[in-house]
Write a structure and sequence with these properties.
Strand order of the largest sheet: 2-3-4-1-5-8-7-6
CATH topology of the largest domain: 2,3-Dihydroxybiphenyl 1,2-Dioxygenase, domain 1
CATH superfamily of the largest domain: 2,3-Dihydroxybiphenyl 1,2-Dioxygenase, domain 1
Structural class: alpha+beta
Number of domains: 2
Radius of gyration: 16 Å
Number of helices: 3
CATH architecture of the largest domain: Roll
Strand content: 35-45%
């Protein structure tokens, strides 16, 4: 049995002030906003910055910014990954069957990649 191929598509972190952090990514690193979801009462404001960062606003948090919320992972075998994750002990979260809590508490979001996307992402040499 061959294992699926995957890559981390985004890292979601909680911050007390989304605008402050977006300004850093834009002004210091030149990374623009990829997507934004305003707060709607049931969900906090969220901003996705180019470069695989999702910022989730949590203005009531009093500790240091940067608490990990979840990892978004693109896979080439969505159904197979979910089946293996369940057998491994991962539990589906209320957000949907692709939102998993691993034993120990780490949350991951499993996303189906388009054909060839995983191979293309894995072909990038980050040290080149």
């Amino acid at each position: 049995m061959s294992l699926p191929r995957a890559y981390v598509e985004h890292v979601a972190i909680r911050v007390s002030d989304v605008d402050h952090h977006v300004d850093f990514f834009r002004e210091v690193l030149g990374l623009a906003i990829r997507d934004e979801q305003p707060a709607d009462g049931s969900r906090p404001r969220q901003v996705w910055v180019l470069g695989s960062v999702q910022l989730i606003e949590d203005p009531n948090f009093t500790g240091p910014d940067g608490r990990l919320a979840h990892l978004g992972i693109m896979v080439d075998d969505y159904e197979g990954v979910l089946a293996r994750a369940a057998a491994w002990g991962a539990k589906a979260l209320p957000a949907g069957p692709n939102w998993l809590e691993l034993p120990g508490g780490l949350n991951v979001e499993i996303l189906q990649a388009s054909a060839g996307a995983v191979e293309a992402a894995l072909a990038i040499n980050p040290r080149a």
